[in-house]
Amino acid sequence: MPLNLQSQEYLAKLLAKENLSVQHGNYSTASFEIENRVLRLPLWADKGKDVYDLLVGHEVGHALYTPIDGWHDSEKKIGKIPRAYLNIVEDIRIERKIQETYPGIVRPFKIGYKKLFDDNLFGTDDRDINEAGLMDRLNVSSKGRGYVPVEFSEEEAPLVKEAMEVETWDDVVNVCEKLFAFVDENEKDEEMPEGTSADFPSNDMDGDDEAETENPEGTTPAEDDEEMDQESEGEGGKTLADVYDEEHNEKVEEKPTMADKHSPWTEDTFREREEDLLQKKEDCHGDTQQSTYSSGITDINLDKMLFTWKQAQALRNEYMESGDDYDRYENPYQHEYCERDWNEKKPGLNSTANLLAKDFERKKAAYEYSRAKTAKSGKLDPLKLHSYKYSEDIFLTVTNLAQAKSHGIIMFVDYSGSMCDIIEDVTNQAITIAMFCRKVNIPFEIYSFTTTGFHKELLDRDEMKVKGNEIDDLDRIKIVEMLSSKMNNKTFEKAAYTSFAISKAHSYNRGIQYYVSANSLHPIDSMGSTPLIQTVILAKKLTNKFQKKHAIQKTNIMFLTDGYPDTIGINEDEHQTVRASRYSKIVNFNGKLIEGGNSREMYTHALKILKEHTGAKTLGFHLATDASSFGQGYWDIEEKQHIEFKDVIKKWRKNGHLVWKNQKGYDDYFIIKCGQKQVDEEFAPKKHETIADIRNEFKKFNKNKKHTKQLVAKITDAVAI
């Protein structure tokens, strides 16, 4: 796993002394786009921070000092000079210059190259470097800086010194010409060791292709060999040659071949093994590949995904005034009967909010007193003066209560299409949480999240363009502010009603005695899919801003959803050079990496990174209506193999909820039974009922109230002091 990519990108920009665009991706090697100042870096495996700093420093050196003709992958020919010569000497130049500019990077270079030599990236474990040609010895000496002992002759020393002191690209070319001439005159083609992949020369003993062995018997060599084989076959069908080989255990040796003296094998070996530096892993199909990499989401597109209450309400108002695709008779925003329902529902929601507030204040007081400290005030206590002869405790005391931490809540509500059955209940719970927060003065923000599949052009996203290997289809995602603590009473009342009315329009609960249509909603309020991973990435930015604004000590981030996160799509990277796996993906989340073979696995990793970035507590609420939807939320709970499913679901049906610690990336994970009737704090039976009806209604009231109080207790426990 690569190190923190964000810190490495910052390092590259600092070393370059300019705001380079640094882009990681599925690249086989680093490259630099001079005109646009874009430095592209591969996904290197984690060989330690020093190796990473070495690689980044080396590539920034190229970005700063190497002309386009000097990059390793340049195809431009410069006289007779081999590209390997230019690569070796140019590496010497840029590495010396970057280390002279930043002395602090000298140590990572030294330790980093030591690690690369220990891993045999240059092939120095396979051969004696001091028997190699001048360019190989120069390459190892310049990079190893004494770690691998290298010897030079008196004739070579002046050229080595000149190569180590080159200042400009022209100097590099001039020195390489001298090195080429020296090697061409003084060195012979090098004999390659056994086991190389080079072509072998002729196998003739004397090297004479025309020589033939005289056959005194007049038979052809083929006939003679055949007769000898037949005569020499012994027991078991073995020939004399077979027996001889078995007795003497001799093997046919491969004759070493000759290598071009102008092809330094250390440079060639490193280029061949450079891919070993890349991060790779074996996927579920047994293929060793890199995961497909995404740079995540840019800040510009994160901002475009978000709609504040004012922005969303302006779109709704403009939509209602335009009259386009808008049915005023089915419109929930201003529906007379919808407003009547809201006025009837609001007292019940407020009652539950009171329960939450009372429970929270009780636990807050318990926290303060449990950690209270008693101290002497320094003043005499008249009631204790009589005991001054035998007790020193004659002073007044004061009790200092512990200060509870300041709290904040950020909630994200799933508005995907599958939520239609329960969207009324879920929206009511969100409004209840908002009411609770207002009662106890807890800062809060509540957002809906989903995608839009139609009329997305009405969301005004002309500037929302994905770049490079960014997450794709971001123009479909919308995170909309529903409620927040910064709203005044009038705005909060309007926002709460609007959320309630939108849920009515989407609801499949046809117990409603009037009809409001989802088709009459602006696309900002339409339902789509479940972009949980993208929402988590935005949640980090929102949470950091929220914490800074309110000076929050303890933030609770809540996710209310009924299903799985969407599959992540990644925009095609035209510069990609490494074949990546289709089954595994990596997304850059502020330098940390979300990795997984499916969206559920990636979402779990995203939540863990969200906690690292924000220090917040995460609470997940899986919303279920039946055994099937319960099972979707329960299937990967770690304890499930130890408990029978039938026992778990029986308990869930009885209590109306279950809760676990540290599951699926959440600190607290709830499975809530939705569809339960919201109850008022006080029992108010309907008029004109019989005694038996009132008794039965009271039993149901108590049962629902018990479930509500249990859930309230669990939530206030989770939102700990």
Question: What's the arrangement of secondary structure elements?
Answer:
Blueprint (H helix, E strand, L loop, with lengths): L4 H12 L4 E5 L5 E3 L4 E5 L6 H17 L17 H19 L4 H13 L15 H11 L12 H8 L4 H18 L3 E2 L29 H12 L7 H9 L9 E2 L5 H9 L7 E2 L5 E7 L4 H7 E2 L1 H14 L13 H35 L2 E8 L14 E6 L6 E8 L8 H18 L3 E8 L25 E8 L4 H18 L25 H19 L3 E8 L18 E10 L2 E5 L2 H16 L2 E8 L2 H8 L10 H11 L1 E7 L2 E8 L17 H28 L3
Parallel strand pairs: 1-3, 7-15, 8-13, 11-12, 11-14, 14-17, 17-19
Antiparallel strand pairs: 2-3, 4-5, 6-7, 9-10, 12-13, 15-16, 18-19
Helix pairs in contact: 1-2, 2-3, 2-4, 3-5, 3-7, 13-14, 13-20, 14-15, 16-17
Written description of the protein model:
- This protein has 721 residues and is an alpha/beta fold.
- It has 2 domains: 5-197 and 262-279, no CATH class; 299-365 and 404-677 and 688-718, no CATH class.
- It contains 20 helices and 19 strands.
- The chain has helices at residues 5-16, 49-65, 83-101, 106-118, 134-144, 157-164, 169-186, 221-232, 240-248, 265-273, 299-305, 309-322, 336-370, 423-440, 489-506, 532-550, 599-614, 627-634, 645-655, 691-718; strands spanning 21-25, 31-33, 38-42, 190-191, 258-259, 281-282, 288-294, 306-307, 373-380, 395-400, 407-414, 444-451, 477-484, 554-561, 580-589, 592-596, 617-624, 657-663, 666-673.
- The strands form 5 sheets. Strands 8-13-12-11-14-17-19-18 form an 8-stranded mixed β-sheet, sandwiched between helices. A 4-stranded mixed β-sheet has the order 6-7-15-16.
- A hairpin with a 4-residue loop joins strand 2 and strand 3 (38-42).
- Helix 13 crosses helix 20 and helix 16 (532-550) packs parallel to helix 17.
- It is elongated.
- The two termini are 37 Å apart.
- Residues 195-256, 398-402 and 676-683 have low confidence and may be disordered.
